[in-house]
Amino acid sequence: MLPTPEVIADFNRIYEPAEDTFLLLDCLEEQKLFLNHILFDCKKKASPPLVMEIGTGSGVITSFIQNSIFPNQFAIYLTTDLNSYACETSLKTSELNLEKSGISRLNCVMDSVQCSLTSCVVNNSVDLLVFNPPYVPSANSEIPTINGQSNIDQDSGAWLDMALNGGDDGMIVTAKLLDNLHDILADNGVAYILFCARNKPDDVYKQMKERKLQVEKVIFRKCGWEELSVLRLWKRK
Amino acid sequence: MKLITSNFIKCPIKKCDSSLDSYPLSYQNCQLVIKQQDFNANFIKSMLNRLDWDALLRVAKELGNTLLPLNKPALENSDQEEDKEDDEENLNENDLKLLKDLHNLLLETNIIEGEMICRSCNHKFYIKGSIPNLLLPPHLVD
């Protein structure tokens, strides 16, 4: 078992790592060999992959990748979130855990951008994408609208609704990402996205196969009343 | 925000994707801070393989750095030497200096505050507390 990174943050302002987060960590641990193979061993020319986590929250997933999945490999990390406090926290979590693990030689660089999904990222650039979306089915009206001027940090409830509520089938936010996925992934890029049963991951599986991505359900777990799974979507070349 | 990130981000407005002017964003009124990082020649060398050099030149120039070569440098042995633990000694003086300059520019140069403007739609975004904010107002979200 690879260690879970430490997070020091105000969980009244961001999503606290929970079962869904831990499922993604376990999933990445199982995928470690595969990821190292496609992102490093198969490359003709060494170039650091762009690793991107959307809706990063605490940043624990990105920190885990840095410390345990690619500890000795060169990589560029980018996290995004609608919530600027999450962006800041993801950078702090990374720093804290890199320091603790004593990785002294510089082999990674990280930044965090406040934006929606992958809207600000150059096409064909993302080599590894991880997304723990707001997947809980809710009324569409319960998804807060955001804009560049409002500060969701100060509206205490909005960030949590944003982290959880996914509208119809819990898929409103994830569907937007899926629409762009093929465009933003680099050749041989791969995405890991978490679903609950009510998101109908089997339907997503079929739809995404038609969009020239190789899809596989890589992990499944019952967590109390939730059935969570992760799909791996691979733009295989 | 580190300068290297300017190589990966663009205007989030979808219709700007079709315009060559939406990338890179134009960086204006930026406040820069240098944060020291350990230098790793191999890391910078491998990074060269994926950088959009013209975009980097453009942003560097806006921020006052006009010392980069106009074409992406091709370093000798850049493929065979990757496995060496430390190949700083194998680089000639000029290449080593170039990699150190790039290290300073890409990884150590942080934009703390500033503006990012899309050359296609002229929308202005802000960098605050080192975090670039590329959220759109509701009327521009598609």
From TrEMBL, chain A:
Coiled-coil features, chain-numbered ranges: none
**Keyword annotations for this protein?**
Methyltransferase, S-adenosyl-L-methionine, Transferase
Q: Name one GO molecular function term.
A: protein methyltransferase activity
Q: Which organism is it from?
A: Ascoidea rubescens DSM 1968
Highest taxon above the source species: Eukaryota
Q: Which GO terms describe its biological process?
A: methylation; regulation of translation; ribosomal large subunit biogenesis
InterPro entries in the cross-refs: DNA_methylase_N6_adenine_CS, Euk-Arch_PrmC-MTase, SAM-dependent_MTases_sf
Family the UniProt entry places it in: Belongs to the eukaryotic/archaeal PrmC-related family.
- Mind telling me which GO cellular component terms the entry cites? eRF1 methyltransferase complex; large ribosomal subunit
Please report the name of this protein according to its UniProt entry.
Uncharacterized protein
TrEMBL record, chain B:
Alphabetically, the GO molecular function entries are: protein heterodimerization activity; protein methyltransferase activity; rRNA (guanine) methyltransferase activity; tRNA (guanine(10)-N2)-methyltransferase activity
Q: Where is this region: Disordered?
A: 70-92
Q: Where is the composition biased (Acidic residues)?
A: 78-92
Which cellular component terms (GO) are annotated to the entry?
A: eRF1 methyltransferase complex; tRNA (m2G10) methyltransferase complex
Domain of life from the UniProt record: Eukaryota
Q: Name one Pfam family in it.
A: Trm112p
The family database entries (InterPro entries) matched by this protein are listed as: Trm112, Trm112-like
Q: Which GO terms describe its biological process?
A: maturation of LSU-rRNA; maturation of SSU-rRNA; rRNA (guanine-N7)-methylation; tRNA methylation; tRNA wobble uridine modification
Family to which this protein belongs: Belongs to the TRM112 family.
In Swiss-Prot or TrEMBL terms, this protein is called Trm112p-domain-containing protein
Q: Which organism is it from?
A: Ascoidea rubescens DSM 1968
